[in-house]
Amino acid sequence: MRLHRDLTSILETPSEVKNDFEPGWLGKVVIKHGLDWENVSCRGFITDLCDYDTKSNFVVLHSETAWAPMDGLWEAVIDHYPRVSFVYLAEECTEDIYVNTDSAGTYIPDRFKFELCGDAPIPEGWYANQEKPNYIEILEYFADFEKLAAYCLKLTGKVFTAFNELKDYFTDIFKDEGDVVVCVKEFTLS
Q: Cα dihedral sign for 16, 59, 78, 70?
């Protein structure tokens, strides 16, 4: 696929413009497609370009950006590939942005994010890592609430019947633990 070849080439070629994001600066993607990097928001970089899947005919790439997804950049780039469309999963915790544009779940089935991370005593009855009994490190994604609730049941022994109940439970447990990240989010579908 031409898009994958172009992105691979971009990642392998040094930038003509000085930047702090080498080797995957998004400005290189913009420049390669004849666009002006000063007029297209391109703050961020590609962190991973997966192998091209010839059977399903899609490309997966991971990028890190600041403050918001770079959908305008990708829309401008995709215009150069008439038979290509894109979907993305975007997370920006400081701006409380959790978006999945694959509403059908064809390529990105994730609908919920569950993250707990930091130094804290493990609540009684929870499964704990024996090597780090006072450290929590969980990052999981789920396609539906039932799978999230089943995971949390296994973790805590508690049954959850609604998303807000589950979210409030974990937020309340760790509210006094300043070093623990609690991120229980439902992605907005768009």
A: negative
pLDDT of residue 164: 96
Task: State CA 6 to chain mean position distance.
Answer: 23
Q: Calculate the CA dihedral of residues 41, 43, 76, 105 and round it to 10 degrees.
A: -120
CA 163, distance to chain mean position in Å, is 20
C-beta atoms surrounding 12 within 10 Å: 8
Which pLDDT score, from 0 to 100, does residue 128 have?
A: 59
Give the C-alpha separation, 135 to 143, whole Å.
26
> Is pLDDT of 67 > 70?
yes
- C-alpha distances out from residue 27 to 22, 36, 68, 119, 157, Å: 10, 9, 16, 38, 48
C-alpha distances out from residue 60 to 46, 52, 144, 184, Å? 11, 8, 22, 25
- pLDDT exceeds 80 at position 56: no
